[in-house]
Amino acid sequence: MEHKKIVIPSLSFFQNELKGEGVVKSRRTLGELAGIFENQDAYSQLPLDQLAYEVYSYLPEREGTPGGLYFGITQLYPGKVGDEYFMTKGHFHQQEDRSEYYWGLEGEGMLILMDRERNTWAERMMPGSLHYIPGGVAHRVANTGNSVLSFAACWPSDAGHNYEEIANKGFSARLVEVNGTPKLR
Ligand SMILES: O=P(O)(O)OC[C@H]1O[C@](O)(CO)[C@@H](O)[C@@H]1O
Ligand SMILES: [Fe+2]
Fold it and tell me: How many angstroms does the Cα of residue 54 sit away from the middle of ligand 1?
Protein backbone atom coordinates (compact mmCIF):
# COMPACT_ATOMS: atom_id res chain seq x y z
CA MET A 1 0.00 0.00 0.00
CA GLU A 2 1.40 3.37 -0.96
CA HIS A 3 2.08 5.33 2.27
CA LYS A 4 0.87 8.87 1.80
CA LYS A 5 3.54 11.27 3.03
CA ILE A 6 1.88 13.42 5.63
CA VAL A 7 3.39 16.87 5.38
CA ILE A 8 2.54 19.06 8.32
CA PRO A 9 0.74 22.05 6.73
CA SER A 10 2.63 24.48 8.94
CA LEU A 11 5.91 23.02 7.64
CA SER A 12 5.03 23.17 3.93
CA PHE A 13 3.24 26.51 4.38
CA PHE A 14 6.29 27.93 6.12
CA GLN A 15 8.71 26.60 3.55
CA ASN A 16 6.72 27.53 0.46
CA GLU A 17 4.62 30.54 1.43
CA LEU A 18 7.01 32.49 3.59
CA LYS A 19 10.14 31.86 1.56
CA GLY A 20 11.88 35.13 0.85
CA GLU A 21 9.77 37.21 3.22
CA GLY A 22 12.31 37.56 6.03
CA VAL A 23 12.95 33.81 5.99
CA VAL A 24 16.61 32.86 6.31
CA LYS A 25 17.67 29.31 5.44
CA SER A 26 20.84 28.04 7.08
CA ARG A 27 22.50 24.66 6.56
CA ARG A 28 24.81 22.69 8.86
CA THR A 29 26.95 20.00 7.27
CA LEU A 30 28.76 17.30 9.22
CA GLY A 31 31.96 19.27 8.61
CA GLU A 32 30.54 22.12 10.72
CA LEU A 33 29.89 19.70 13.61
CA ALA A 34 33.53 18.78 14.19
CA GLY A 35 34.27 17.97 17.83
CA ILE A 36 30.69 17.46 18.99
CA PHE A 37 30.64 13.67 18.49
CA GLU A 38 32.46 11.28 20.82
CA ASN A 39 33.68 8.79 18.20
CA GLN A 40 36.18 10.77 16.19
CA ASP A 41 37.19 7.72 14.12
CA ALA A 42 33.61 7.18 12.99
CA TYR A 43 33.28 10.93 12.36
CA SER A 44 36.39 10.98 10.15
CA GLN A 45 34.86 8.26 7.88
CA LEU A 46 31.83 10.43 7.04
CA PRO A 47 31.64 12.92 4.12
CA LEU A 48 32.12 16.38 5.63
CA ASP A 49 29.77 17.94 3.08
CA GLN A 50 26.88 15.67 4.13
CA LEU A 51 23.92 17.80 5.23
CA ALA A 52 23.09 17.22 8.91
CA TYR A 53 20.34 19.81 9.33
CA GLU A 54 18.83 22.95 7.90
CA VAL A 55 17.00 25.74 9.68
CA TYR A 56 14.32 28.01 8.17
CA SER A 57 14.23 31.07 10.44
CA TYR A 58 11.62 33.83 10.31
CA LEU A 59 13.37 36.88 11.77
CA PRO A 60 11.01 39.88 11.59
CA GLU A 61 13.06 41.96 14.07
CA ARG A 62 16.70 43.01 14.16
CA GLU A 63 18.88 40.61 16.23
CA GLY A 64 18.82 41.88 19.82
CA THR A 65 15.41 43.62 19.67
CA PRO A 66 13.93 43.36 23.18
CA GLY A 67 10.39 41.98 23.23
CA GLY A 68 10.52 40.53 19.71
CA LEU A 69 10.10 36.84 18.84
CA TYR A 70 11.85 34.63 16.29
CA PHE A 71 10.41 31.49 14.73
CA GLY A 72 12.39 28.65 13.20
CA ILE A 73 11.80 25.21 11.68
CA THR A 74 14.68 22.76 11.78
CA GLN A 75 14.93 19.66 9.62
CA LEU A 76 17.47 17.29 11.21
CA TYR A 77 18.36 14.27 9.06
CA PRO A 78 18.71 10.73 10.35
CA GLY A 79 22.17 9.29 10.84
CA LYS A 80 24.71 8.08 13.38
CA VAL A 81 28.32 8.82 14.20
CA GLY A 82 29.35 5.57 15.85
CA ASP A 83 26.47 4.91 18.27
CA GLU A 84 25.63 8.63 18.64
CA TYR A 85 22.72 10.15 16.71
CA PHE A 86 23.04 13.13 14.38
CA MET A 87 22.29 16.16 16.51
CA THR A 88 22.29 19.95 16.50
CA LYS A 89 25.28 21.88 17.85
CA GLY A 90 23.45 22.89 21.01
CA HIS A 91 23.69 26.20 22.83
CA PHE A 92 22.88 28.31 25.85
CA HIS A 93 21.38 31.72 25.15
CA GLN A 94 23.66 34.74 25.42
CA GLN A 95 20.96 36.40 27.51
CA GLU A 96 20.83 33.66 30.14
CA ASP A 97 17.24 34.22 31.23
CA ARG A 98 15.68 33.91 27.75
CA SER A 99 13.44 30.87 27.41
CA GLU A 100 12.32 29.07 24.26
CA TYR A 101 9.67 26.71 22.96
CA TYR A 102 10.44 23.72 20.71
CA TRP A 103 7.68 21.55 19.36
CA GLY A 104 7.78 18.38 17.30
CA LEU A 105 6.40 18.41 13.74
CA GLU A 106 7.64 15.21 12.05
CA GLY A 107 9.77 12.20 12.97
CA GLU A 108 11.22 10.97 16.25
CA GLY A 109 13.88 12.62 18.37
CA MET A 110 15.11 13.63 21.78
CA LEU A 111 15.57 17.15 23.13
CA ILE A 112 18.67 17.08 25.36
CA LEU A 113 18.71 19.73 28.09
CA MET A 114 21.42 20.77 30.56
CA ASP A 115 21.15 23.31 33.38
CA ARG A 116 23.89 25.54 34.77
CA GLU A 117 24.85 22.85 37.35
CA ARG A 118 25.49 20.55 34.32
CA ASN A 119 22.57 18.24 35.12
CA THR A 120 21.47 16.75 31.77
CA TRP A 121 18.10 15.19 30.93
CA ALA A 122 16.15 14.47 27.75
CA GLU A 123 12.55 14.77 26.51
CA ARG A 124 11.09 12.66 23.67
CA MET A 125 10.16 14.68 20.58
CA MET A 126 7.39 13.54 18.23
CA PRO A 127 4.72 15.25 16.11
CA GLY A 128 2.80 17.52 18.48
CA SER A 129 5.18 17.31 21.48
CA LEU A 130 5.68 20.71 23.13
CA HIS A 131 8.89 21.52 25.03
CA TYR A 132 9.46 24.53 27.25
CA ILE A 133 13.17 25.36 27.59
CA PRO A 134 13.62 27.64 30.62
CA GLY A 135 16.30 30.38 30.57
CA GLY A 136 19.74 29.10 31.60
CA VAL A 137 19.15 25.63 30.10
CA ALA A 138 21.30 24.53 27.14
CA HIS A 139 19.42 22.64 24.44
CA ARG A 140 20.37 20.23 21.65
CA VAL A 141 18.20 17.92 19.51
CA ALA A 142 19.09 14.40 18.33
CA ASN A 143 17.29 12.48 15.57
CA THR A 144 16.58 8.99 16.96
CA GLY A 145 14.45 7.88 13.98
CA ASN A 146 15.08 6.74 10.40
CA SER A 147 13.48 9.75 8.72
CA VAL A 148 13.80 13.51 8.93
CA LEU A 149 13.01 15.04 12.33
CA SER A 150 11.32 18.42 11.92
CA PHE A 151 10.69 20.69 14.86
CA ALA A 152 9.67 24.31 15.27
CA ALA A 153 11.23 26.78 17.68
CA CYS A 154 10.12 30.17 19.01
CA TRP A 155 12.56 32.29 20.97
CA PRO A 156 13.11 35.93 21.95
CA SER A 157 14.90 38.05 19.34
CA ASP A 158 17.31 39.24 22.07
CA ALA A 159 18.22 35.72 23.30
CA GLY A 160 21.36 35.30 21.19
CA HIS A 161 23.24 31.97 20.90
CA ASN A 162 26.15 31.01 23.15
CA TYR A 163 27.76 28.12 21.24
CA GLU A 164 31.21 28.49 22.81
CA GLU A 165 30.48 26.91 26.19
CA ILE A 166 28.95 23.80 24.59
CA ALA A 167 31.69 23.66 21.94
CA ASN A 168 34.31 23.71 24.74
CA LYS A 169 32.69 21.57 27.44
CA GLY A 170 29.84 19.73 25.68
CA PHE A 171 26.81 18.41 27.56
CA SER A 172 27.45 16.27 30.66
CA ALA A 173 25.82 13.26 28.97
CA ARG A 174 25.54 11.82 25.45
CA LEU A 175 22.56 10.25 23.74
CA VAL A 176 23.61 6.93 22.20
CA GLU A 177 21.84 3.89 20.79
CA VAL A 178 22.05 0.82 23.03
CA ASN A 179 20.32 -2.36 21.70
CA GLY A 180 18.26 -0.19 19.37
CA THR A 181 17.12 2.21 22.11
CA PRO A 182 18.24 5.80 22.77
CA LYS A 183 20.08 6.02 26.11
CA LEU A 184 21.51 9.09 27.87
CA ARG A 185 24.88 8.19 29.39
O1 LIG B 1 21.35 26.52 16.86
P2 LIG B 1 21.65 25.07 16.91
O3 LIG B 1 22.13 24.59 18.29
O4 LIG B 1 22.55 24.60 15.80
O5 LIG B 1 20.26 24.31 16.72
C6 LIG B 1 19.37 24.73 15.76
C7 LIG B 1 18.04 25.15 16.41
O8 LIG B 1 18.28 26.07 17.46
C9 LIG B 1 17.79 27.37 17.06
O10 LIG B 1 18.87 27.93 16.39
C11 LIG B 1 17.30 28.31 18.13
O12 LIG B 1 17.23 27.70 19.36
C13 LIG B 1 16.67 27.08 16.18
O14 LIG B 1 16.42 28.10 15.30
C15 LIG B 1 17.13 25.85 15.49
O16 LIG B 1 16.01 25.09 15.31
FE1 LIG C 1 17.85 28.38 21.58
Answer: 9
Q: How far is CA 70 from CA 93, 142, 157, in A?
A: 13, 22, 6
Tell me how far CA of residue 148 lies from CA of 66, 70, 87, 127, 138, in angstroms. 33, 22, 12, 12, 23
> Which CATH number does the domain housing residue 151 bear?
2.60.120.10
The whole-model pTM stands at 0.90
Domain for residue 121, yes or no? yes
d(CA 19, CA 132): 27
ipTM over 0.90? The verdict is yes
Whose C-alpha lies nearest to ligand 1, atom 3? 90
Within a domain: 127: yes
- Structural domain contains residue 6: no
pLDDT digits (tens, 9 = 90+) for 108-165: 999 999 999 999 999 999 999 999 999 999 999 999 999 999 999 999 999 999 999 9
Of the candidates 110, 175, 170, 109, which has an alpha carbon nearest to the alpha carbon of residue 138?
Answer: 170
- CA of 2 relative to ligand 2 center, distance in Å: 37
Domain presence at residue 1 = no
Of 84, 88, 79, nearest in space to 53 by CA: 88
